[in-house]
Amino acid sequence: MVPGSRGATRPQGRDTEGAVTSANPRANKVRPASVARRSEIIAAAIHVIARDGIRACTVSALESATGFARGHFTYHFNSKEEIIALAFASVGSDWATFQIEQISGTTARERLESQIRAAARWGQLRPEYFRCLMNFRVEMMRDPGAFPRAPEIRAQFLETAAAMIRQGIADGDFRPDLDPAWEARVVFAVVDGFLMHTAMDAAFCPPHELPDRAWRAIADRLLAAPRP
To answer: Which of 28, 122, 136, 174 has its Cα between 20 and 30 A from that of 142?
Structure first.
């Protein structure tokens, strides 16, 4: 999941040693990149965005979060927007990879259940990443073009969920009243809602019960047949 960023119009690449290069003639000098230092800066951006929101992720805020001098940011990155885009890519990739790796089962119902439980667990295991992702979504509501690849990736996950629901209907496990494509959106909304309310109100749902309750709400929604 590697979405772009507003203003990041210069095509970039990497040489064989991992250095960042740019098609901009004025910035075409190869700059050796310290992977560890870049990772620290991206991690700091995730922390700032999770805590204060995407618009608070300024170079000054990153200086305070890392203790690095301003020159480190201009040396390793082309712009603040590039740092934010990479923070989004890191969080989004972690979210997607965790769910994909956790999907299991032979039936569509089992696969959907494993994905729902994985999504709930991800939010619990990565609370800072979850808050960061929510703040990215706020920015996308303000500016749908902020992260151009995000809608495409979201559409892929929605279609995967819709396909599992369609197969569940064919298997006799699901009997939803509405179109599977719409039900897939409800699935995502339920999981996000459970995670948000649990994060805001500990009494809403005991953390250890969240995956079970999220799946139960979705199973009831899809009129899932009882397990044999």
So the answer is: 122
Domain boundary among 36, 53, 83: 83
Distance CA 148, CA 89 (A): 12
> Of 25-29, 56-60, 80-84, 137-141, which gets the smallest average pLDDT?
25-29
Query: pLDDT, tens digit, for every residue of 101-142?
Result: 999 999 999 999 999 999 999 999 999 999 999 999 999 999
Q: Which residues contact 45 (CB under 8 A, 6 or more apart)?
A: 57, 62, 83, 84, 86, 87
Identify the domain containing residue 179 by its residue range: 88-221
Q: Is 20 helix (H, G, I), strand (E, B) or coil?
A: strand
* Total-model pTM: 0.79
Burial-class residue 180 by CB neighbours within 10 Å (0-12, 13-18, 19+): buried
Neighbours of 8 (CB within 10 A): 17
**CA–CA gap between residue 218 and residue 214 (Å, rounded):** 6
* Structural domain includes residue 7: no
DSSP, collapsed to helix, strand or coil, labels residue 208 as helix
Where helices occur in 58-179 by DSSP H, the ranges are 59-66, 70-76, 80-102, 108-125, 127-142, 150-171
The tens digit of pLDDT for each residue in 81-91 reads 999 999 999 99
User: 67-93 burial, b for 16+ CB within 10 Å, e for fewer?
Assistant: ebeeebbebbbbebbbbbbbbbbbbbe
Please give the tally of structural domains in the chain.
2
Is 135 found in the same domain as 24? no
